[in-house]
């Protein structure tokens, strides 16, 4: 959120293109990693113990997750720049941030539940879904790259 405050003033077209290119490359890397995981048969479902404070655990894992940080320094920064390009007001950025956090909470809760249930009940289908979602990452990665390289 704080990265977006006043960011657009300092970003030239060449910097925006570079962000788009790096963000697209990051998305393609995430897609490759996801495809590899979906093709791996070693990711068999397991029952895990529930931790005492899942919110604290989730916050800690997010804050220390290098992929989360890499995402926001590449593709996320590009998205912030796009929001600011269409509206330079702080209110729009704040609204987008609040909506993003709320939707993340809902979406990630749903995904976590579906992933747990799906991987336990239909592990093959879960791997197919992971592969299909990796293709979505490829699409957006190519879109970002195309925007950055043209």
TrEMBL record:
Pfam families in alphabetical order: LysE
Keyword annotations: Cell membrane, Membrane, Transmembrane, Transmembrane helix
Gene Ontology cellular component list: plasma membrane
Top-level division of the source organism's lineage: Archaea
Record localization: Cell membrane
InterPro entries for the chain: LeuE-type
Topology class, membrane: Multi-pass membrane protein
The keyword Aminoacyl-tRNA synthetase is assigned to this record: no
Membrane spanning residue stretches: 15-33, 54-74, 94-115, 127-149
Primary location recorded for the protein, binned into one broad class: membrane
GO biological process terms on file: amino acid transport
PANTHER family: LYSINE EXPORTER PROTEIN (LYSE/YGGA), TRANSPORTER, LYSE FAMILY
Protein name listed in UniProt: Lysine transporter LysE
